[in-house]
Amino acid sequence: MNINFTLVSQAIAFSIFIWFTVKFVWPPLLRAIEDRQKQIADGLAAGERGKKELELASQRSSDTLKAAKQRANEIVIQAEKRAADIIDEAKLAAKEEGKKIIAGAKAEIEHEIFSAREVLRQQVSSLAVQGATKILRREIDSKAHADLLTSLETELK
Amino acid sequence: MASETELTPTSYIQHHLTNLTTNIGEGPFWVLHIDTLVMSVLLGVLSLGAIWMIVRTATSGVPSKKQAFVELLIEFIDDQVKNTFHGDRHSFVAPAALTIFVWVLILNAMDLLPIDIMAAVYENVFGLHNWRSVPTTDVNTTFALALSIWILTIYFGIKVKGIGGWLGELVFSPFGKNPILWPLNLLFNLIEYVSKPLSHSLRLFGNIYAGEIIFLLLGMWAATGAAGAVFGAILGAGWAIFHILIVTLQAFIFMMLTVVYLSMAQESH
């Protein structure tokens, strides 16, 4: 246990080692560690941001979905209303048409009745004339009573 | 045991505790312990060089296993320094703490090498009769470290507080600025300044030196016969395992005290 020059030489070696560590060993690794810490922090921040954005997007999508549903509902309601309108219109038109057809039919019937009656009348009048002719043939000279017969015929027509 | 001369317990211990010396001048001071110097510089270059090689290729991406190990070490030390030292630790204190921890740890760890086998290797391979493997069992090493740090504390104290502030603190604290108390304050501070490097260096030296002595005693016991060899081997293994803790703990304590002294030097009382 004797103090000697070894102490001085060891102190010099110690100083050199400290200088070496301060200069060459510590800074690069510290830089690497700090860079990695920064990268991790950035990554975490990005993840957080992504999560927030996802939340926003899902919020937006649900909003859009809700709006679309509402719109679809409106469209359905409108369509139903329109359908009801069309049906009503169609009913109205059909009624009109029916009325028209009925009216036409009625007119036709009237016409038929009229012409039938006319025919009937003609027939009746000719029958009557024939009957009268037959009756009168014996008593009336057709030549003498021709104008009378003609006038009767026109009257019956 | 490598000695061919008569083997007594005294000569055995003395052989293991004798440094390889060389005189570089007149007087007892101008002596160099070659073994201490070569071992410490060699181990320092190896350990710090290995760390440097790994750090040179350090990436901020996915680290290799080696880089992850060095990062663990550096972050562990950085954490310790951060808790104790307030200020810019990256420019000096934290790397210095890393140097001290790694270097002292590897120097202490030489204590775990089997002394007699190593002595035989030194004797027969390198032809060195006296060669001590553990530089921290040389009081010169521990004093060199402690005194360097002591000078650094004074340097940082003056740098932070200015020469006036530093001298003022010597006479004004810890008891107060009353002139009657000045001599007492000065005495107190001088005792503190003397005791710091002494306790700092002798704690490390004492622990590692005592550990080596225990190994030597167990080695002596092993030489007494079969029973001694068995017990010596078992207890030697036990002591070596326990010594792993001491080796690490002393390196850690030495580093922490360095950081504490340096941070105390920069803070006002």
UniProtKB/TrEMBL annotation, chain A:
CDD domains associated with the record: ATP-synt_Fo_b
GO annotations of cellular component type: endomembrane system; plasma membrane; proton-transporting ATP synthase complex
Keywords from the UniProt entry: ATP synthesis, Cell membrane, CF(0), Coiled coil, Hydrogen ion transport, Hydrolase, Ion transport, Membrane, Transmembrane, Transmembrane helix, Transport
Gene3D superfamilies reported for this sequence: 6.10.250.1580
GO MF annotation terms: hydrolase activity; proton-transporting ATP synthase activity, rotational mechanism; proton-transporting ATPase activity, rotational mechanism
Superkingdom assignment: Bacteria
Cell compartments where the protein resides: Cell membrane; Endomembrane system
InterPro entries cross-referenced by the UniProt entry: ATP_synth_B-like_membr_sf (IPR028987), ATP_synth_b/b'su_bac/chlpt (IPR002146), ATP_synth_F0_bsu_bac (IPR005864), ATP_synthase_B_chain (IPR050059)
Residues forming coiled coils: 51-89
Main location: membrane
Membrane topology: Single-pass membrane protein
Transmembrane segments: 6-26
Subunit composition and interactions: F-type ATPases have 2 components, F(1) - the catalytic core - and F(0) - the membrane proton channel. F(1) has five subunits: alpha(3), beta(3), gamma(1), delta(1), epsilon(1). F(0) has four main subunits: a(1), b(2) and c(10-14). The alpha and beta chains form an alternating ring which encloses part of the gamma chain. F(1) is attached to F(0) by a central stalk formed by the gamma and epsilon chains, while a peripheral stalk is formed by the delta and b chains. F-type ATPases have 2 components, F(1) - the catalytic core - and F(0) - the membrane proton channel. F(1) has five subunits: alpha(3), beta(3), gamma(1), delta(1), epsilon(1). F(0) has three main subunits: a(1), b(2) and c(10-14). The alpha and beta chains form an alternating ring which encloses part of the gamma chain. F(1) is attached to F(0) by a central stalk formed by the gamma and epsilon chains, while a peripheral stalk is formed by the delta and b chains.
Role played: F(1)F(0) ATP synthase produces ATP from ADP in the presence of a proton or sodium gradient. F-type ATPases consist of two structural domains, F(1) containing the extramembraneous catalytic core and F(0) containing the membrane proton channel, linked together by a central stalk and a peripheral stalk. During catalysis, ATP synthesis in the catalytic domain of F(1) is coupled via a rotary mechanism of the central stalk subunits to proton translocation.
NCBIfam families on file: ATP_synt_b, PRK05759.1-2
Similarity annotation: Belongs to the ATPase B chain family.
HAMAP family tied to this protein: ATP_synth_b_bprime
Protein name: ATP synthase subunit b
Organism: Nitrosomonas mobilis
Gene: atpF
TrEMBL record, chain B:
InterPro entries: ATP_syn_F0_a_bact/chloroplast (IPR045082), ATP_synth_F0_asu (IPR000568), ATP_synth_F0_asu_AS (IPR023011), F0_ATP_A_sf (IPR035908)
Highest taxon in the source lineage: Bacteria
Pfam families attached to this UniProt entry: ATP-synt_A (PF00119)
Transmembrane segment boundaries: 30-55, 92-110, 139-158, 213-234, 240-262
UniProt feature coiled coil, ranges: none
Membrane-topology annotation of the record: Multi-pass membrane protein
Keywords: ATP synthesis, Cell membrane, CF(0), Hydrogen ion transport, Hydrolase, Ion transport, Membrane, Transmembrane, Transmembrane helix, Transport
UniProt-annotated location(s): Cell membrane; Membrane
Protein name: ATP synthase subunit a
GO biological-process terms attached to the record: proton motive force-driven plasma membrane ATP synthesis
Organism whose genome encodes this protein: Nitrosomonas mobilis
Family note: Belongs to the ATPase A chain family.
GO molecular function: hydrolase activity; proton-transporting ATP synthase activity, rotational mechanism
Function, as annotated: Key component of the proton channel; it plays a direct role in the translocation of protons across the membrane.
Entry GO terms, CC: plasma membrane; proton-transporting ATP synthase complex
